[in-house]
């Protein structure tokens, strides 16, 4: 039996539920035991009682009561063989610090209301406890493309800090309805959340706000039009300088050229040729700084369903210079 411990919540654990935080730290302790310890007040956060579904935040201190030693444990992976094979098939790169996935549209990054199958839950396929990879950023459920997770607390903390301090460079590709004018520039302003629903970001809606409004956050996006299909649609590269919820979707809709397939942030233009059945937003490129070396540059191919839409509109990835695009967005 271990003694009483006090553990501080790391930046990468901010917003985690108490029971899930506990499971990552002490995988041998059952969920039933965690709930029981919470009810008895033996697990406390900053000295206060909590429930299993309470959320913890960076810097808070969690009191851990005496716990049984690991002993015999059930197998680490309770995932199905199919899910293990599936999540591993999404990996496009990995090293000692991180794993990069090409996340498909429709797969949530985290659990939420009525969301039980998500990438975070599948990370059990890669380890347990402190060795279990951890999320360092997010993508909307219906956005495809690059998403990385950190290997171990130290790597995860460094990567999370790089995202939070805007030292990473992200490039998204979108198909917009119509053509943004001008064809290259910046979109900026303030936005705020109109509603919140925990970690289920798809239930949140962002609205325009004024400077000084409660909850208002400044948002800045750089963009350049790569290709056009007449005036019906355009292929746009976007760089979110800030990282607000649904930022790219809100900004393109505000220009009157909403992202094709976006059912939440729309514009007055009709979708071309009935192609708007999926959100045409893809996290194409991610540049991550590396201490003492060159940045790591990752790219994610378009998923087949999205590439088919590109082909239908006459957009060819082979005919563009991504180097020129990156220079335009710099």
TrEMBL record:
InterPro entries: PsdUridine_synth_cat_dom_sf, PsdUridine_synth_RluA-like_CS, PsdUridine_synth_RsuA/RluA, RluA_PseudoU_synthase, S4_RNA-bd, S4_RNA-bd_sf. It is an enzyme of class 5 (isomerase). CDD domains: PseudoU_synth_RluA_like (cd02869), S4 (cd00165). The keyword Isomerase applies. Residues 49-78 are annotated as: Disordered. PROSITE patterns: PSI_RLU (PS01129), S4 (PS50889). Residues 16-75 form the RNA-binding S4 domain. One of its GO terms (biological process) is enzyme-directed rRNA pseudouridine synthesis. Belongs to the pseudouridine synthase RluA family. This is Ribosomal large subunit pseudouridine synthase C.
């Amino acid at each position: 039996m271990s003694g009483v411990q006090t553990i501080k919540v790391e930046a990468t654990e901010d917003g985690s539920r108490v029971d899930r935080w506990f499971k990552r730290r002490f995988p041998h302790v059952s969920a039933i035991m965690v709930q029981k310890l919470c009810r008895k007040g033996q697990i406390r956060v900053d000295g206060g009682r909590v429930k299993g579904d309470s959320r913890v935040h960076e810097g808070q201190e969690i009191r851990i009561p005496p716990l049984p030693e690991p002993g015999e444990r059930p197998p680490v992976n309770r995932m199905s063989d199919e899910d293990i094979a599936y999540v591993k098939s999404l990996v496009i790169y990995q090293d000692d610090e991180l794993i990069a996935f090409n996340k498909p549209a429709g797969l949530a990054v985290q659990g939420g209301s009525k969301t039980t199958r998500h990438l975070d839950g599948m990370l059990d396929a890669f380890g347990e406890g402190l060795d279990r990879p951890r999320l360092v950023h997010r993508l909307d459920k219906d956005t495809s493309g690059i998403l990385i997770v950190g290997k171990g607390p130290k790597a995860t903390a460094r990567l999370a800090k790089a995202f939070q301090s805007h030292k990473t460079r992200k490039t998204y590709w979108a198909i917009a309805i119509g053509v943004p004018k001008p064809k290259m520039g910046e979109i900026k302003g303030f936005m705020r959340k109109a509603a919140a629903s925990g970690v289920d970001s798809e239930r949140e809606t962002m609205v325009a706000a004024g400077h000084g409004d409660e909850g208002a956050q400044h948002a800045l996006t750089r963009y350049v039009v790569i290709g056009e299909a007449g005036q019906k649609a355009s292929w746009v590269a976007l760089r979110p300088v800030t990282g607000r919820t649904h930022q790219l979707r809100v900004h393109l809709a505000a220009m009157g050229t909403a992202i094709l397939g976006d059912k939440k942030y729309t514009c007055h233009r009709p979708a071309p040729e009935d192609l708007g059945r999926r959100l045409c937003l893809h996290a194409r490129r991610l540049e991550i700084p590396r201490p003492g070396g060159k940045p790591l540059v990752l790219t994610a191919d378009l998923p087949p369903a999205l590439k088919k839409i590109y082909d239908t509109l006459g957009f060819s990835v082979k005919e563009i210079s991504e180097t020129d695009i990156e220079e335009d967005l710099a």
